[in-house]
Design a protein that fits this description.
With 692 residues, this protein is an alpha+beta fold. It is built from 15 helices and 32 strands. The mean pLDDT is 96.
């Protein structure tokens, strides 16, 4: 490769970033307030700058040039000239090498140094001072990437949301300790599509893998100082570049292709609410140095940053070029990497206009009219720490939303908190009080009982209080109220009775999840009994705290999850797209009938009884008569053993699932039977008639 540039020409202002052309590369970068812009080219090891070229062409706010003699693999960066006036919102400093916001690859490791600060650390003027040290030695470099890849006959599974079962996973933690995956592939993109992993996902009944952030991110300085790493990756610095610690772009594409062949979709957790540059005391890596006043939402005066994400800064989506960057990023992952959808971290930020959160905000309008993005799954985390930040149920169709009320309500019911029957009923039917408006679907609620942020499911049944000391913050971080229960002993136990109670609790939580209306999401490792030792904020634990220990998997739990997902797949009544409100069907019966253990319908006083803990719900397809024969009777008993009378709406019933007897095969039952304590039992009409 020739590392010196050849002929320089004007180039084009589109597309943004570095675009391979015959014989060269077109570079284009946005900055509305810069007075000058330079392109720096580097040797393959990133250590030596071989050429610095000045942009002479500017079309509006886009600086551009075409450079002959360079190609795929070329390392580069930008330097932006302009005013260093923090009190006016500008922090230009040409001594700082800047990453390309549209860079498709970022090569090399970040070396934390005061030289990457735009201000002089320790100076009396603080961040108002100006630092003249060159930061290039400490910075990774952007890299020109070829998008060539043989997709063959790859096609998106396009699983309807009503048939979707999501599996939230971290690329490295999922496979780092998997004994059937070659050691060199563990913890990488390549492991995602390995036959052993695909077989496990298929056996679970998973239809979509949702990956924690894989956009390029850097480890926080305070973590590096403590010998820790940013494991979760919610600190994005490259919205187009895959994180290289997990492998290459083509390895990621290969994994997507292999998962698609198995009918499994790939969703990305994306962080467009902030960047890793932090507040005014943070480093100058890219956006801050290119055009601080455009990329970030600044408070009055311009020196300080809005902090709706709690990370120091907030991206300014009301600026059209910033909005364009996010939409371009989303399209890139769909068109070039065949991704099937996105989960938007702290998504309230994305819909916050000058007057507050708005479901008709510019971001939503632009996203929902986009013909490329219209066909993919869109999931919001509907909260942030900004004003009016909790917006569960407030996002426009077709967004689905993470439902923390489901998590908390279901955990509290099974923990035995009094008066939780009405709350459980709401969650079982898709949280209609939050989502049944504006023609939204009943699958809008993404239900979960555990996620990456919080206790694993095993820890929900093993710890009453968090154990986050390994994070180096004296156990001050993480949620204090986890609605968990140690079942008689805090942490690990060898007591057989406690272990049995914990196993039953986990099965009950999983069954509640997969028997509820909405879209279920499993946390990777929960089907194996993975514990984080009570750490409910393991964002910095890139070690065996978060790495799933496949060798220590609880026997039969994954098989039980597979039974649940198979039951869900076999019964459309469990995954309806219309909300159930006890409407009368064509046969004169309602689509939902609540029952007590004695078969009678609960009265208002029953629902308000703090001790009402045995709830039956008879589910039928909607009033329109679809799949009229599909009926299930689900009994959720969070109390003591009870005598159960089955509904007279079917002459004969068959037990198809019992969490207290997970190995029992489906079998016919009489109209009256004994119900075990702390159990869920599911019945379907038995077409074969009475007991033999």
């Amino acid at each position: 490769m020739n590392f010196g540039a050849g002929h320089i020409s004007a180039g084009q202002p589109w597309p943004l970033g570095a675009t391979l052309l015959p014989g060269g590369v077109n570079f284009a970068v946005f900055s509305a307030h810069a007075t000058g812009m330079e392109l720096c080219l580097y040797t393959p090891d990133g250590r030596r700058e071989v050429q610095r070229l000045t942009f002479s062409q500017r079309s509006g706010d886009i600086w551009h040039m075409q450079v002959a003699g360079v190609g795929a693999g070329q390392l580069y960066g930008f330097r932006a000239h302009g005013p260093y006036a923090p009190e006016e919102g500008h922090r230009f400093n040409p001594h700082k090498l800047l990453l390309d916001p549209y860079g498709k690859g970022i090569a090399g490791r970040l070396r934390w140094s005061d030289a990457m600060m735009g201000y002089k650390v320790g100076a009396a003027r603080g961040d108002l001072g100006f630092d003249t040290r060159d930061s290039a030695f400490a910075m990774p470099k952007s890299q020109v990437i070829s998008g060539d890849f043989d997709w063959g006959d790859d096609h998106a599974p396009q699983t309807p949301l009503a048939k979707t079962v999501i599996y939230e996973a971290h690329v490295k933690a999922l496979s780092q300790m998997h004994p059937a995956i070659p050691e060199k592939l563990r913890g990488t993109y390549a492991a995602l599509g390995h036959p052993a992993m695909v077989a496990h996902l298929k056996a679970l009944g998973v239809t979509a893998v949702e990956l924690l952030p894989i956009h390029t991110y850097f480890d926080d300085r305070f973590l590096v100082a403590k010998g820790l790493r940013n494991h979760w990756g919610y600190n994005s610095m490259g919205f187009f570049a895959p994180e290289e610690r997990y492998g290459t772009l083509n390895q990621f594409k290969t994994a997507v292709k292999e998962l698609h062949q198995a009918g499994i979709e790939v969703l990305l957790d994306v962080v467009y609410n902030h960047t890793g540059e932090g507040d005014e005391w943070g480093p100058t890596w890219s956006f801050r140095g290119l055009d601080n006043a455009s990329y970030y939402r600044l408070l009055q005066g311009g020196r300080h940053y809005a902090n709706d994400a709690g990370t120091g800064n907030t991206l300014n989506l009301t600026q059209r070029s910033v909005l364009r960057m996010i939409l371009d990023s989303l399209r890139y992952w769909v068109e070039e990497c065949h991704v099937d959808g996105f989960r938007f971290d702290l998504a309230t930020v994305l819909g916050r206009e000058a007057t507050g959160f708005d479901p008709g905000a510019g971001f939503f309008d632009a996203l929902l009219q986009d013909p490329v993005l219209a066909r993919v799954k869109l999931i919001a985390e509907p909260w942030d720490i900004g004003p009016g930040g909790y917006q569960l149920g407030g996002f426009p169709q077709p967004f689905a939303e993470w439902n923390d009320k489901f998590r908390d309500g279901v955990r509290r019911f099974w923990r035995g908190d009094p008066g939780q029957a009405p709350e459980l009923a709401r969650r079982l039917l898709g949280s209609a009080e939050k989502f049944d408006h504006s023609r939204r679907s009943a699958v809008s609620s993404v239900n979960f009982v555990a996620a990456h942020d919080g206790f694993t499911l095993a820890d929900v049944a093993s710890y009453s209080v968090k154990r986050n000391f390994a994070n180096g913050e004296e156990n001050r971080d993480g949620h204090d109220d986890n609605h968990s229960d140690n079942m008689g002993a805090e942490g690990p136990s060898v007591d057989a009775a406690i272990l049995a109670a914990r196993a039953l609790r986990v099965r009950n939580l999983l069954a509640t999840l997969l028997l509820s209306q909405g879209t279920p999401m499993l946390l990777a490792g929960d089907e194996l009994g993975h514990s984080q030792g009570g750490n409910n904020n393991a964002y910095a634990q890139d070690n065996d705290v978060t790495w799933i220990n496949w060798a220590a998997a609880q026997p039969d739990l994954a098989g039980f999850v597979g039974r649940l997902t198979a039951l869900r797949a076999a019964h459309p009544v469990l995954r309806q797209t219309r909300f159930l409100h006890a409407r009368e069907r064509l046969d004169g019966l309602r689509d939902v009938i609540w029952r007590r253990a004695d078969g009678a319908e609960p009265s208002a006083s029953d629902w308000h009884d703090p001790a009402f803990r045995c709830i039956g719900v008879e589910l039928r397809m909607s009033a329109e008569g679809r799949d009229a024969a599909d009926v299930l009777f689900i009994v959720i008993n969070g109390g003591d053993a009870a005598r159960l009378d089955l509904p007279p709406t079917a002459p004969h019933w068959r037990c198809v699932l019992d969490t207290s007897r997970p190995d029992a095969a489906p079998h016919p039952v009489g109209l009256t039977l004994d119900l075990n304590a702390q159990s869920i039992v599911v019945f379907s009409p038995d077409p074969e008639g009475a007991l033999p």
